[in-house]
Amino acid sequence: MNRRRVGTLYERAAGVYLLKQGYEILEFNYRCRAGEIDIIAKENGYLVFVEVKFRRGTGCGDPLEAVDKYKQRTISRVAMHYCQTHALTGHTSCRFDVVAVWGEEMQVVKNAFEYCGYR
Predict the structure, then answer these.
(1) pTM (2 decimals)?
(2) CATH number of the domain that 84 lies in?
(3) How many CA atoms lie within 13 A of 28 on its CB side?
(4) What confidence category does residue 95 fall into, taking pLDDT thresholds of 50, 70 and 90?
(5) What is the 8-class DSSP label of residue 67?
(6) 3-state secondary structure string across 5-50
């Protein structure tokens, strides 16, 4: 199976995991010129932009480390585009979460990073 297919499978599994955690999934794989966000959801009054990172096991490195400042900047820019194109105002509370996947184990890190789109 190619990497994109594997990624899609784990993004869908992360979506199921987030549903069980009380999230409402709005979109998978939102794309624009700036890049892509794996999952857009709502949770406890927040609009949540979620990055899913997968590793086969603990020997392959921490999936959370893969969301570096460059990836954070891309996600932030895509989130800004989403808010602008969906007429969401400055009154919408947003946050950035990461779902780390190690084989069959998952963990969500809420508010994993701050907005950093245009620095």
Answers:
(1) 0.89
(2) 3.40.1350.10
(3) 13
(4) very high
(5) S
(6) HHHHHHHHHHHHHHHHCCCEEEEEEEEECCEEEEEEEEECCEEEEE
Q: Contact, 50 vs 40, CB < 8 A?
A: yes
Q: For residue 102, give the 3-state DSSP assignment.
A: strand
**What b/e string do you get for 89-109 counting C-beta neighbours within 10 Å, with b at 16 or more?**
eeeeebbbbbbbbbeeebebb
Q: Which residue type occupies 49? A: F
How confident is the prediction for the chain on average, in pLDDT? 86
* Torsion sign across C-alpha atoms 105, 36, 26, 48: positive
Pairing of strands 94-102, 46-55: parallel
- Asked if residue 118 belongs to a domain, the reply is no
Domain total of the chain: 1
The C-alpha atoms of residue 45 and residue 112 are separated, in whole angstroms, by 17
In a domain, 119, yes or no: no
Range of the domain at 71: 3-113
Question: What is the average per-residue pLDDT within 32-56?
Answer: 92
pLDDT category at 108 given cuts 50, 70, 90 is very high
